[in-house]
Amino acid sequence: MGICGGQGNKRLTKLNLEQTKDQTGTTSNNENPGSSKQSKFVKQLTDFKVDPSIFVTLKKGDLLKNYKIDQVLGEGTYGKVNLVTQKATGLQRAMKIDQEGQNSN
């Protein structure tokens, strides 16, 4: 468990205050109004719902039979989180492989 200091919210609020969106979808920086540097934001809407059916339960055995490991998304003291592709369906998932699982080849 950790302590959340809320630093991310402060940063996001500051970003929102520094940039305004005009009608064309480009952003301009309020700190430097004469700047010609503009970027375009794309809004993506998804119909994603968290439901127990989207989770895969713990399985033991050779995961390479069912999954192709694509890349490491993150790692910590107790293991790694990898982007994997389920061979049967082609679905991409995030899979946590704990330290015990990494050492039992």
Automatic annotation (TrEMBL):
Region of interest: Disordered: 1-41
GO molecular function: ATP binding
Residue sites binding ATP per the record: 96
PROSITE patterns: PROTEIN_KINASE_ATP (PS00107)
Domain of life: Eukaryota
Biased composition (Polar residues): 16-41
Gene3D superfamilies noted in UniProt: Phosphorylase Kinase, domain 1
Keywords from the UniProt entry: ATP-binding, Nucleotide-binding
Keyword ATP-binding: yes
Protein name: Protein kinase domain-containing protein
Species in which this protein is naturally found: Paramecium tetraurelia
